[in-house]
């Protein structure tokens, strides 16, 4: 039998509804496991503790009274510490908000609670999600469960590390340049970037006008599809979200991808810094798409991504400066409390001219049109999520930016497309990820493809030694 902490969310829910477990017992066991094992990993900033127990008891009481179970009935969920949770500390990973306790839920927390989910705690994040390592001044740096000398990635590193460590089956992350997909690949879990506007934005710190998307992370594709169904859908208070209702992701999950057109993305920009063994491992996994009945184009796709990194930097950094940095940097006390990477990004953004911002907008429009042309002949692009294994932590450097880390992910955010990172193998004993890229609002197809790879590759059976001892 599968140990409880490795059970997928759908199985836990089924057993809770069948009376084999209670929501309270599941929550208590996971809280105990986190307290016993997270000391070396630091995947959490705040545990919900008594609040989580109360929520679990309320779910059990509702089920006993005959209430209709929600899609997450009794299932523990973690939320990245950028997003508000009523009555539970939300710091944004920033010392300037170290004692901040929201008086309202973000839309994600509210929808998870309404679906019967139990919020287990707030996962570690760099300050306002602004760094590729999950490191800041509120909590110790989050380490990779597969190798504690390495980063768990960022900025949803705490969410990914918690999943890989068996600290819960479901997590909410966010992604403006790779922040769901990169740590998912680095920690060997599944992560989905929804397309622009598919999930509304509400109740958090650090989102950007064009790029930030909130999405599910899990060890199981069905679980991720369920969580996406819960958090997706229009919201009156977000003028940038889609107004149409999302499709039923679970209804089509097992339909397969027979006849779907797939192509391999040959990233020429990444050739100089990608690890050939990582690329070869991911390519071998991608080639198996034909086993699921998809058609893999014999000709590789080369995307025109020159200048994307610089344009993304302008748009992302300036938006963060506008909604966070300007006020913080004008307050001498708060400025002093910021991490070096946050200060340096805000300082840089303050010097960007309107001309530079306009050029970045044009580059964004160009990559959107380019991808539209590419996807006229294909349905899915396949590529590495990241061309290297997770880097070793250098605790002396908190400003370094590595474009190599995001060469495969930034173009997706720039265009507003959706993508998933699927665990697909190991290199040097560390997990690597296959990225599946789809058109806007085609999360259902990406999930169907991910489900086929899940069945072929069987990634859920392997766990880091730190989580097994």
TrEMBL record:
Alphabetical list of PROSITE patterns matching this protein: AMIDASES
Top-rank taxon, per record: Bacteria
One Pfam family in the UniProt entry: Amidase
Domain Amidase span(s) in chain numbering: 26-447
UniProt similarity note: Belongs to the amidase family.
Protein name as it appears in the record: Amidase
The species this protein was found in: Pseudodonghicola flavimaris
